[in-house]
Amino acid sequence: MKDRIHFHRAYKRLGPVNRLSLAALLLLVLALDAAIAWFHAPLLDAFVTRVAALAAWVGVRTDLTHWEFLPVWVTRMPVLDAVGAFPSRRLALITFIASVLIVVVLPRLRFVPKVLRVYAVFLSLLNLISGAFFVLVPHLFPYDVLDFSLLYMGTQFGMWLLMPVVMGVALSPLQTPVWERFAVILATLGYAILFGAVRYACFLYLLQKLTVLHMAAMFFALGPLIDFVYLVAIYSVYMNVVALRLRERPETWRWSF
Amino acid sequence: MVVLILKLYVLLVVLIMAIYATRHYRFTVNRLVGEQRLYYQDLIDSELPRISVLVPMHDEEKVARQSLEAILRCEYPRELLEIIPINDHSTDRTAAILDEMAAGHDVIKPLHRHEGQRGKPAALNDALLVAFADVIIVFDADYLPARGSLRDLAISFKDPEVGAVMGRVVPVNTRANLLTRLLDLERSGGYQVDQQARHNLHLMPQYGGTVGGFRRDLALSFGGFDQRVLAEDTDLTYRLFINGWKVVYANRVECFEEVPETWEVRSRQIRRWSRGHNYVMFKHFGGLLRSPYLTRAEKLDGLLLLTIYLVPVFLLTGILDSVALFFLGEMQIIDSVLVFLFVATYNSFGNFAPFYQIGTASLLDGVTHRIRLLPFLMFYFLMNIWTITHGFFQALGDRFWRRKRAEWDKTKRFRKEAPV
Asked: Which of A110, B20, B189, B190 could cysteine-pair with B349, CB 3.0–4.6 Å?
């Protein structure tokens, strides 16, 4: 015999959200975003300096420069410039042909999971367009390392502002302590900065030591898409912790109304 | 000018994604902390209605016996029950299994179809003509209902406003591989939060075509199921709501199903859903907006549900738009942040349920470590977009060419039991 019958999962729920804690979380997220915005200059400078050191460690020479014309309130964006490896026409042609082959052949290889096939075809299409650019009109390719850096840094900074909001919204219905949820938001931001720095250095390495041909694939496959993956990963780890805690405290659950 | 249009389109896509993300956030909050609207399972009524349980089957020798045995184990007065397994053009041992089961149980009355169009709508239409009850309960061939399911589903029809009822689907093969685990999470988000919240908020819970029921006379008054439609469940949902009937959701009524174990099968399933759902969108868009029986909130929810398989099409074109902007050298900071936004918002909605909705559903379900698989839902990201867009264009073709019948693509079964 069970000595205790818990609520069935169909209609159990948590108690109402505490408005005070919700307001506190909202204020903390706003304060964090305001701090990032206010201290953007030293923050961005510190970030770029460390990326430059990291890049130098793997043998990539970069020049720190500041972009002045930004139309928003970030008036001086520090970015790293480097000499990119311009692809030879032969490499571009090989990339183009290989990409065409992947786009044509891969969808027919049924033993490869479809989920991977679709992803590989998408990346190959990007490389196909890049390859065609460098074969036909290399001088018209719209990016050099500096442009790419500016795009990367701009995106990165945008993420730093958006991530606390996205994570804050996702965590808002929970009833765990505010400081704990805010710590998760800070951890996500910290990871974004760390990961962003390592990724930037890797990109610079690839652009200088390998080729600038894969810029588009780098941006679309390893850019914002990946940022979202680790955001969800951190969220899921935290939810796992909350779920384990709730299992130990069944009295937290309420019934229906 | 072209660049401006491309940039405005990116903004439009973000806006659409944001609308859906907001909708699902509202559902999540409502389900986790809001007042829950109970179903009718606590109604004690001595006069249960007569019911006909329909189980469409095409080449289902792997699952037919188990499924019928599970239905037979359900507690329901035998004099009020008939079970009609529909052998729909099967070429394997399904027919023999059904006849064998019928020989041992009076309530099982197989319907063998060898002529006419194959497919669930056609099979259901034939069965509706021979069914003895006013209340029809439907299970797919791989479904394993719990003992109280029939009573709990049937009792809702004591409410004269109810036109259809839908129960909860729970995967039985969750532990098979990564895909099935992910599908379990997705189902959890879709039923535990999405459907229940729509039920709570008096919006438009959806009749899902299985683990559910409807009034036979209503289906017949609509002319039966439309055989051109691959999503006959969504079609019925909209017909009911547009004509002033309600669909209720029974979160307590759980039924096990087998989910696809390969990406290929899953992809075909989603494409079929997309084709069917988008066809229904073309069919009911105007009717939904004009219906005098629906509140504004119901219309808005109905509209968002109706266009849900259109959103990946917007997203795919949005991504192509971004690629075009990139190669035109016009991908500036704001645009690239927007790319993050629509990736974020798509994942807030795009896998049929957003990550926070699935996380919340898992919490309510008492799932613990499996929640950590959430980031793997990104695997779906591009595949879903591609597959759903493919289905959309098929639906467009169906509509444009006025196809009279849709080719029914049967979902492959993975159950290991050898047929007897």
From this structure: B20
- Which pLDDT score, from 0 to 100, does residue B1 have? 82
Decide if A155 and B28 are in contact by the 8 Å CB cutoff.
no
Ordered DSSP codes for B78-106: GGGEEEEEEEES--SSHHHHHHHHHHH-T
Using a 10 angstrom Cβ sphere, with 0-12 exposed, 13-18 middle and 19 or more buried, the burial of residue A193 is middle
pLDDT digits (tens, 9 = 90+) for B352-363: 678 899 999 999
Residues 233-252 of B with CB under 8 A from A: 251-252
CA B62 to chain centre: 23
Residue pair A71/A199 in contact by the 8 Å Cβ criterion: no
pLDDT single digits (tens) A157-215: 888 988 999 999 999 999 999 999 999 999 999 999 999 999 999 999 999 999 999 99
Instruction: Find chain A residues with C-beta within 8 A of B373's C-beta.
Output: 236
Among B residues 379-398, those touching chain A with beta carbons less than 8 Å apart: 379-383, 386
CA dihedral in degrees (B351, B357, B362, B368; nearest 10)? 90
DSSP state of A108: G
Q: How far is A243 from chain B (nearest CA, A)?
A: 5
Tell me, what amino acid is at B287? G
CA-nearest of B224, B229, B247 to B237 is: B247
Total residues belonging to chain A: 257
* Contacts with A133 from chain B: Cβ below 8 Å: 327
Indicate yes or no: CB of A114 within 8 angstroms of CB of B263.
Answer: yes
What is the Cα–Cα distance from A257 to A222, expressed in whole angstroms?
Answer: 45
